[in-house]
Amino acid sequence: MWNRNALENRRTIHNRNRIVNKETLFIVTLVSMFLMGATIVSNPESIFAQHHGAPPPMATLGDRNIAMNLTIEPEEITSDQDAQLILQLTDENTGQMIQHVTYRLTISNDVQTKLSEFFHSHEGDLTILVRNGKLPQVNVGGTFDVLTNAIVPDPAGKIVVSGPLFSEEGKYDIDVEVTTLDNDKTDLQVPLAYHFVTNSSSSSIGSN
């Protein structure tokens, strides 16, 4: 009788251990799947950088850390004054400015897309002079480069955008995609994407 009870107790303990082991394995599997999912979701952040008034985080391309700076002059844009946008990529590993960069620049507000165009700079840094005016539409002045399929700066080193680019008061989203770097002919499989925000205030004449 004692042997039978002991055997039953052993079987019960063994079955409980099997259940515990299965539950533990299930929990470990769930945790592993969660961690893998988190890794997959976070990977796009390595090629996407946001900017809200501070230097943007670096984007990763292979073993390179690439930072992009967008300088807006003046910092407070008004609808009746000219502005200047300066874009530049830097390899943080070497501290060197990256050359042969193609930028897809899109500027929009809550109402419409104001500008969406490809620009290229052989030297790497790109300067865009914005001449806010009362033209019916935004016009881009520059030279179209067949090799890069983008607009390149004029001999003075600038691209001039004329018209009502920042004519409405409010917030503007500036989205930049980098489609080439280092080499004019080689497109990136996944563009580096950056998001910036700026504001345009009412005309300086009306605010005085």
Summarize it:
With 208 residues, this protein is an alpha+beta fold.
List keywords for this structure.
208 residues; alpha+beta; Immunoglobulin-like; 2 domains; 2 helices
Write a structural description.
The protein is an alpha+beta fold. Helix content is 22%, strand content 45%. Strands 2, 3, 5, 6, 9, 10 and 13 form a seven-stranded mixed sheet that branches. Strands 1, 4, 7, 8, 14 and 15 form a six-stranded mixed sheet that branches. A hairpin with a 4-residue loop joins strand 11 and strand 12. The protein starts with a helix and ends with a helix. Mean pLDDT is 77; it is low at 24-52.
Oligomer: single chain
Q: Could you state the order of secondary-structure elements as H and E? A: HEEEEEEEEEEEEEEEH
DSSP summary: helix tally = 2
User: What CATH first level of the largest domain would be assigned?
Assistant: Mainly Beta
Question: Runs with pLDDT <50, length 5+?
Answer: 24-52
In what range is the share of β-strand residues? 35-45%
- The proportion of residues forming helix, as a percent range, comes to 10-25%
**Alpha-carbon distance between the two ends:** 103 Å
Which topology of the largest domain does CATH recognise?
Immunoglobulin-like
Averaged pLDDT, please?
77
Annotation, overall tally of beta strands: 15
For the largest beta-sheet, the strand count, sense and barrel status come to: 7 strands, mixed
Please tell me what the overall shape is: globular
Label the CATH architecture of the largest domain: Sandwich
The class by helix and strand makeup works out as alpha+beta
Number of domains: 2
Question: What is the CA-based Rg, rounded?
Answer: 28 Å
